[in-house]
Amino acid sequence: MDYRSDEIVLPAGRQRLTTLVRQAGDVIHVAEAAGILNLDRPTASKMLARWATQGWLRRVGHGAYVAVQLDSLASEQVLDDPWVLVPSLYAPCYIGGRTAAVHWDLTEQIFNDIVVLTARSIRGRSQRHHGAAFTLKHIKETKIFGTKVLWRGHTRVAIADVHKTIVDILDDPSIGGGIQHVADCLRTYLRSPDRNDGKLIEYAERLGNGAVFKRLGYLVEDDATAAELAQACRSRLTKGNIKIDPSLDSPKLVTRWRLWVPPFAISSERQ
Fold this sequence. Notes:
With 271 residues, the chain is of the alpha+beta class. The chain has two domains: 12-72, Arc Repressor Mutant, subunit A, CATH 1.10.10; 93-270, no CATH class. The chain contains ten helices and twelve strands. It has helices at residues 12-23, 30-37, 41-54, 86-90, 97-103, 162-171, 179-190, 197-207, 210-220, 227-234, and strands spanning 28-29, 57-61, 64-67, 93-95, 113-118, 126-129, 132-138, 147-152, 155-160, 242-243, 252-254, 259-261. It has a four-stranded mixed sheet. A three-stranded antiparallel sheet has the order 1-3-2. A three-stranded mixed sheet has the order 10-12-11, with helices on one face.
């Protein structure tokens, strides 16, 4: 037996685990583990499952694990950055809605959830994983466009770009924090150097929901800098009347925009 006190010799299993955690990304997949440890996939899968049972890893999705920090073994919160879970849990997907609005500085509000738009089959609109709350919206994979890639540690995470963020929350105000918050984000966007009216129209046409043009046109028509944008929306109006926010009681019909609105003003531009 080696009694040298200046060298710590780890058991073979711990050495493998340490090697894997150091070389893998934030989320460890079976195929990645097999390559790093020079194992076949079935053996790697069993090894990851065993380490999860022993408490060294935690499963976050099918064939996907995260390393458990020694000081968080008894805690549900494993990751400092839960965004790294998004691709493993919900791909094909992207982060959007109010979460993207915060990222792009369209709002100073703070939200406790992470909004994810996903083409994967999901159960329910709300899920919790490792201490993080996720609000989900199921979409067709063809609706996944207008995104940018962010690196969170070693993980690539897709997020709606600033223009797609605006279009998405106009399409579904619930993921934008409600129509008043959507209007506030839109107003910030219109004053930002990133503003691109042509990109808004392009994305809205590609999304294919006429409600976007009705809401957008109504919200910008009193903005002196957005006359052309309002006209572009007016020329693309579809038939039928819709609510500016499906969650609100909206008894007033604005016929020029085919839009049911609440009795109070939505945007401060109208007050």
